[in-house]
Structure formats: structure tokens, C-alpha cells
Amino acid sequence: MPDRPLPELRAFIEFQRTVGFVTAAFLFVTALAFDAPELAWFRAWVNMQSPPAGIEWVLRVMALLTAIGGVFIFRSAWKVRDPEDHPLLGLLLRRPESVVWVAALGGVEHRVNGVAVSRSRHLIVYTDARTTESMDVPDGRIDAILDELEAYLPHATFGFSPDRLAHWREDPASLRVAPAGGAPYRTPGGEQDRERTRPKVGPAPMGALLLLVLLGLRLALSADFHCAPASPRPTLQRR
User: Fold this and answer.
1) Exposed, middle or buried, 165 (CB in 10 Å: 0-12/13-18/19+)?
2) pLDDT tier at 176, thresholds 50, 70, 90
3) C-alpha–C-alpha distance, residues 26 and 28, integer Å
4) What is the pLDDT of residues 33-84, one digit of tens each?
5) Range of the domain at 181
6) Are both 167 and 116 inside the same structural domain?
7) CB 99 within 8 A of CB 91
């Protein structure tokens, strides 16, 4: 067994961690842009004078909510700065004998403007203690991860079916298989599960859309409030 087992799963967790840090940084910068009246370069860019206090408070609330979202994403990424701290990988490395069943269920299809941009499946690991660990894995990585899990867990059953779920609930140990009698995950039931996906807009497109909407609002407000000074009111003169 290699010094660092499950390299495919480990690499995917590291990729998720990196995406989390980048997303958190993006949200922090976005929050700073929303609360930018104190930044001279931003005020010059949008050509904004002092807007009403009510509008400023709306933008400040948006900045606060965006920053809070960045904090939560940063915390999630920080928790897996060591991939072995991820609950799923930690279970597989520390207690592989407890895993009796692995299944990949139909997951989520991410769409932008009606076009599918990514597709993921839900990887679930079932233990003999009737507990589970799971994660969403893109379609492009799921086969490689399942291949290495099948080699790493020769005693576990692979592939979902309602009968196996019932057996796991009644007697998890019944899903253990002999080393010579492996169960491949590419079964008709597994392939059918692959097609059961539900459309969903991913968080990255939603964040980008939110940023564009709020910056558009900011620019629109700058155009409204940057007005030429009013001409003096004419006065009547007596002769």
C-alpha cells in the first residue's frame, strides 16, 4: 500500500479546500467593495458623491452579510487544511474495516442560463455502526475515486440498491463480502442512479450574479446622486 493511500480522494479534497479559500477571499473583497465610501479610488471610479444615509446602510448590511458568508466558507476550508481531517477520508484511513458498503447516488446538475455546466454525484460510505459519511463528487472524478475505493476496501459491497439499504439497516455486517467475491459498482442499478439528477444553480454563478447586481445598483446610484448644482432661483427686482 502506498505511503499516502487514496490519492484521488485526497487530491479532490485538496482541490475543494483551495476553492474554498479562493471563494472566501473573493467574498471578502466583494464585501470591501460594497462598503467602499471610505476608499477614494472606488469613489473616483464610480464618480459618487455622498448618497443618502439610508442607501449607505443598505450597502453596509450587504457588505456585512457577504463578509459573514466568507467567514463560514473560510472556516470550512480551514478545517480540512490537512485532507486527513476530512470526516470521510479520516474514516477511510483510520477505520477502513468498519466500512461495509459504498454507493454513489444520483446527484446535482448545476445549470447557468439553462445550460448544464457541471454534474456531481453523492458518494456515501456506510459503516457497520449504522453511520454514514458522504460528499459530492463531480462526474469527472467519481469513477477514479470509486476505482481506488474498490481496491482499498475489498471487503465492502459497492453499488446502491433498495435491498442493500434494507440489509444495512437490519444487519450492517451482512454486507461484508469475501475478498474473492468482490461486487463491482458498475451495476444496472448504479448506472440508473447516475441519471437521477436534479437541476440546481451552483453557488459560484449565484455569487457572481449577486456581485453584478449590487455593483450595478452602486453605479446606478452614483449616476443619480452625481448631479450638477442647481441654478440660483431668479429674483424679481423693483425699478
Assistant:
1) middle
2) confident
3) 6
4) 765 555 544 545 455 555 555 566 777 777 788 889 899 999 999 999 899 9
5) 95-195
6) yes
7) yes
